[in-house]
Write a structure and sequence with these properties.
The protein has helices spanning 4-14, 18-27, 32-42, 88-101, 118-127, 142-151, 171-178, 209-221, 223-240, 243-259; strands at 56-64, 71-79, 108-111, 134-138, 155-157, 183-186, 202-204. Strands 5-6-7 form a three-stranded parallel beta sheet, with helices on both faces. By secondary structure, it is an alpha/beta fold. Helices cover 47% and strands 14% of the residues. The chain contains ten helices and seven strands. The chain folds into two domains: 4-80 and 243-252, Helicase, Ruva Protein, domain 3 (Orthogonal Bundle), CATH 1.10.8; 88-238, Glycogen Phosphorylase B (Rossmann fold, 3-Layer(aba) Sandwich), CATH 3.40.50.
């Protein structure tokens, strides 16, 4: 069994990204030393720590041309910058109230910095009497996030576009899907490039608490659907959003330019 603690140990030894560490441990059947060797062979193990920016994922890859006259050392990083900047979480809290009214038993955790809307969200939770069901847990480390992804029945990320304030593809969606966690989100900005409704996740309209509640209840009531979406989500990330593969594609582009 690949535990969050084992993934964290591998991160400490290699400074590689959380998902890269999880995949390496899966490939080596949980052998920590073999996973370290595998990451080094792939060029993913990093030379230095960037622990001051915990929500940082990336990969380093290197290649020398066939004639040994040129080479490339390429680093690609993905920085998470998704916090509670608008009232999307209010729709989530309202959806949670709807689930409770339908007698659906659940526990929900809202992770991340409060942001300017934190007090408003907390007040709304209290007004709806959801203090025992919905918790604001604050910022979480990568190890803590991984633990939550692995134990969660679903990740719900309702997003809205407010003026120019938007995310491309929120990194938390990619991380959760890589863990096989079913996701419910909104089809805005770059999210449809990652999530296909009914195939590897569920998409609802922005600010639609009822649709959000309906989708979460679908996952609750239909465990086969949840399992199918989770498995498809993991495969989507593996095939289309693997950091090592993307870095090597960029490498090929750079190498082609050098040869010109």
């Amino acid at each position: 069994m690949i535990t969050a603690a084992l993934v964290n140990d591998l991160r400490k030894k290699t400074n590689a990204g959380m998902m890269d560490c999880k995949r390496a441990l899966e490939e080596t059947q949980g052998d920590l030393d073999a996973a370290v060797t595998l990451l080094r062979e792939k060029g993913i193990a990093k030379a230095g720590s960037k622990a001051d920016r915990a929500a940082n994922e990336g990969v380093i890859t290197a290649r020398i041309s066939d004639n040994a006259k040129s080479g490339i050392l390429l680093e690609v990083n993905c920085e998470t910058d998704f916090v509670s900047k608008n009232d999307s979480f209010l729709a989530f809290v309202k959806a949670c109230a709807a689930l409770r009214d339908r007698s659906v038993r659940f526990e929900a955790a809202i992770a991340g910095p409060d942001g300017p809307h934190g007090p408003v969200v907390r007040r709304r939770i209290a007004e709806l009497g959801l203090e025992d069901a919905v918790r604001l847990v604050g910022p979480m480390s990568q190890e803590e996030l991984l633990r939550e992804y692995l134990r969660a029945d679903a990740l719900c990320l309702p997003c809205r576009v407010v003026g120019s304030d938007r995310d491309g593809i929120p990194n938390v969606l990619v991380e959760a899907m890589a863990c096989g966690t079913p996701v419910v989100t909104t089809g805005i900005s770059g999210i449809p490039e990652l999530v296909c409704d009914g195939v590897d996740g569920l998409i609802v309209p922005p600010a639609d608490a009822r649709a959000l509640a309906d989708s979460m209840q679908r996952l609750h009531d239909d465990r086969a659907l949840a399992a199918r979406l989770g498995a498809a989500a993991r495969e989507t990330v593996r095939e289309r959003f693997d950091g090592d593969r993307l870095a090597r594609r960029l490498f090929d582009l750079f190498e082609a330019e050098i040869r010109r």
